[in-house]
Amino acid sequence: MKQVPVRLDLKTLHIPTYSAEKLSSMKDMDWNDFLQRVCSLLDSTEKNTGAARSKLNLLYYLSTVAVHKENASRLISSQLFPILIQQLRAAANWDIRAKVARVIGLLALHTSELGENVPVSEAIILLTELIRENFRNSKLKQCLLPALGELLYLVAREEEKREHPRECWVVPSAAYTVLMRCLREGVRLLRC
User: Fold this and answer.
1) Keywords in UniProt for this one (predicted)?
2) Distance from the CA of 158 to the CA of which of 109, 142, 152, 169 falls in 20 to 30 A?
3) What's the mean per-residue pLDDT of the chain?
């Protein structure tokens, strides 16, 4: 699926818009303040149109800074990742869910080191369930499958790095089943 260009509106973003380079060089105290603001904006429970637009704008911004390896590693290991999972599960707006999945996929792609306490398994299980529940909706699958694939690849890459692999991140067999089913369906559609 062709990625839509990022439509970031800096004027409506309610946090300082640091560049990826600036974020990577921040001291811990400044980083924690920034991260706290991001998390509170994402975790907001407001239901109006402005709140949804604000969340989308924040997710676009996170997409631009998540491509920096150091930022991706810090973000995926922070309290932001569980909030992204929560938004993926609970957001009523599918645009928000799609952008959350994109941020998760970018974090997984650009992370250079993954801590054992990062709830990657929870994200894999949730993405698998969402794909299974919306299997007939090809547009949603195109939004969710890249994130699932990146997380699976990240787990495989991390397990390969370790001398004595452990079951830090359990990947349910349903994730592979859903992935293979989507691939078979894609091949079948290409033949038609």
Assistant:
1) Kinase, Transferase
2) 142
3) 84
Q: How far apart are CA 104 and CA 56, in angstroms?
A: 14
Q: For the chain, what is the domain count?
A: 1
Q: Do 59 and 83 form a contact (C-beta atoms < 8 A)?
A: no
Range of the domain at 25: 20-160+169-190
Note whether residue 133 is domain-resident.
yes
* Contact assessment for residue 135 and residue 141, using Cβ atoms and an 8 Å cutoff: yes
Give pLDDT tens digits for 64-114.
999 999 999 999 999 999 999 999 998 888 899 999 999 999 999 999 988
| Domain annotation covers residue 123 | yes
Distance CA 127, CA 89 (A): 9
In a domain, 11, yes or no: no
Q: Is residue 90 part of a domain?
A: yes
Report the alpha-carbon distance of residue 174 to residue 153 in Å, rounded. 16
CB 18 within 8 A of CB 57: no
- Cβ(72)–Cβ(111) below 8 Å: yes
**Whats the size of the chain, residue-wise?**
192
Report the distance separating Cα 11 and Cα 180, nearest Å. Answer: 43
**Residues above pLDDT 70, as percent of the chain:** 86
In the block, which residue shows the tokens 């952008």? 99
Residues 148 and 83: their CA atoms lie apart, in Å, by 17
CATH number of the domain that residue 96 is part of: 1.25.10.10
